[in-house]
Design a protein that fits this description.
Layout lengths: L2 E6 L5 H12 L5 E6 L7 H8 L23 E4 L14 E4 L12 H25 L1
Parallel strand pairs: 1-2, 1-3, 3-4
């Protein structure tokens, strides 16, 4: 694993948090990217949840999976749970970490932030497990 791509639909929350966590916890020589099949914009609740861990993803932006150079990626990790995950064409190792959409069923700002905290913490555990294997 030298170049990891995290994928979800909008590249606004789960994959962005995964990118930030991976850059923080994985060895510095591993290239980490994120993208989505329908990129939108970075979710402010994802930024807030990551700030609580001292990780700044505020300068991240959503990217389309089509814009990623498939020749450089050796591992793709999808983060979708209930929706259809994006497809990445290429000869890569594929992992799937089903993380629920953090905003699903949440209405108030505190409920939303809590949903992002839950997703962040689940992703963090996966990243830490991956780091232990490397």
């Amino acid at each position: 694993m030298k170049n990891i791509l995290f994928l979800c639909v909008a590249n606004s929350a789960r994959s962005q948090m995964a990118e930030g966590l991976a850059r923080h916890y994985l060895p510095a020589d591993i290239v980490v990217q994120s993208a989505g099949s329908e990129p939108s914009s970075l979710n402010s609740y994802a930024v807030k949840a990551m700030e609580e861990l001292g990780i700044d993803i505020g300068t991240h932006f959503s990217k389309a999976v089509e814009d990623i150079n498939s020749d450089e990626v050796d591992t793709v990790i999808t983060l979708c749970a209930e929706e259809v995950c994006p497809v990445f064409l290429g000869k890569v190792q594929r992992l799937h970490w089903p993380i629920n959409e953090p905003s699903a069923g949440r209405e108030t700002p505190e409920q939303l932030l809590q949903g992002f905290r839950i997703a962040r913490d689940e992703i963090k555990q996966h990243i830490l497990s991956l780091a232990a294997l490397l």
